[in-house]
């Protein structure tokens, strides 16, 4: 562990950015994880903003719980935990981001809501602030067109759970500058993440490949090809997947899966049509693990 920590400290020194304070918008499962890693690993000051005060409370409990587990396992010290928590502040007011150097947006996967948020951010944040979106599928170029500095807008797609998963997909939009790309890559290194680049196409690389697989599993369940356990166990034990596709869908959030499939369907054609059963689950509010009820009950 010592060696790994030293290599990371060296990489951080070599690649460090001028970013001191980062605003994270959306305190759901992704936003909370991004805020934690920014504060814990990259040692940034973080302002986590969510419109919903209950979510803010839940994020704090979640981050605290994750850090406490790491202390119990001996991965970090009690002091590391306290210092991480001190670096994160919480707000329900977007104006609290007026002095940040970098923003990571992680709100609901909805094109109109994201575009409106970026329009507001362009008015609130100081000129030169990099605005990154953690969108799973929405065009970065389209989001950027709602700001007055599209060169500063970029996709920074983290994987779930953020403190554990190594990858960040980086997606430059049509007008994203080299400078914005460099700073984003450096920030990802400071967070101890590995990066890949994807063209700004629906779903980028990860979800262009993953979502049709999950959707097909839902369709298989819809057609009665097997029970949910049959489908998940077949893929887990038969194909060495770390978890079955329906369990994974519950983990991601069925609303998020459905939104991504809709973007793929609208922009890439009928091959990507969401399964009617996925739609039904979303209509029923059975959104997966985050609400304790999806294909499975938690
Ligand atoms: N869930 C995943 O596995 C995963 C993985 C990678 C990327 N993403 C992407 O990350 C984003 C967030 O996903 P999530 O799973 O964390 O969703 P989530 O439903 O857990 O959280 C979304 C949060 O955004 C907040 N919110 C909504 N509108 C807001 C606004 N205008 N201002 C401030 N807060 C607002 C909501 O209160 C909620 O807390 C989505 O774009 C999703 O596609 C998700």
From TrEMBL:
Any one Pfam family match given in the protein's UniProt record, by short name: 3HCDH_N
Sequence ranges assigned to domain 3-hydroxyacyl-CoA dehydrogenase NAD binding in this UniProt record: 21-200
Listed name of the protein: 3-hydroxybutyryl-CoA dehydrogenase
Keywords from the named record: NAD, Oxidoreductase
Family label: Belongs to the 3-hydroxyacyl-CoA dehydrogenase family.
Organism in which the protein naturally occurs: Dictyostelium firmibasis
Gene Ontology MF term list: NAD+ binding; oxidoreductase activity, acting on the CH-OH group of donors, NAD or NADP as acceptor
Ranges for domain 3-hydroxyacyl-CoA dehydrogenase C-terminal: 203-298
Record InterPro entries: 3-OHacyl-CoA_DH, 3-OHacyl-CoA_DH_NAD-bd, 3HC_DH_C, 6-PGluconate_DH-like_C_sf, 6PGD_dom2, NAD(P)-bd_dom_sf
UniProt KW NAD keyword: yes
PANTHER family, alphabetized: 3-HYDROXYACYL-COA DEHYDROGENASE FAMILY PROTEIN (PTHR48075), 3-HYDROXYBUTYRYL-COA DEHYDROGENASE (PTHR48075:SF5)
Biological process (GO), any one: fatty acid metabolic process
The keyword NAD appears for this protein: yes
Residues the record marks as site: Important for catalytic activity: 157
Signal peptide: none
Domain of life of the organism encoding this protein: Eukaryota
Metabolic or biological pathway: Lipid metabolism; fatty acid beta-oxidation
Binding site for NAD(+): 26-31, 50, 109, 114, 136, 160, 290
